[in-house]
Design a protein that fits this description.
Elements lengths: L3 H30 L4 H24 L4 H9 L1
Helix pairs in contact: 1-2
């Protein structure tokens, strides 16, 4: 029997697939207009800018613990 979390997980997986496909199409479209690696860099910048609010919201709601920050700095 499927639970609500199963549907949520499937929905998020589909959303991730759509976002990945959009990233690939954006990278291809920008790559045609810019020479060399500039197209990939521009597409990555747009992708990062779109993800920044999501990351900020997650960090606001769930701030990292000192132990997590220490582990991140150790790597």
């Amino acid at each position: 029997m499927l639970q609500l979390t199963d549907y949520l997980g499937m929905g998020l997986a589909l959303l991730a697939a759509v976002c990945w496909g959009c990233y690939i199409l954006l990278n291809r479209a920008v790559g045609r207009g810019l020479p060399g690696l500039e197209g990939s860099a521009a597409a990555s910048a747009v992708s990062g800018a779109l993800y920044l609010p999501v990351g900020a919201l997650v960090l606001w709601q769930h701030p990292p613990t000192p132990a997590a920050l220490a582990c991140a700095l150790a790597r």
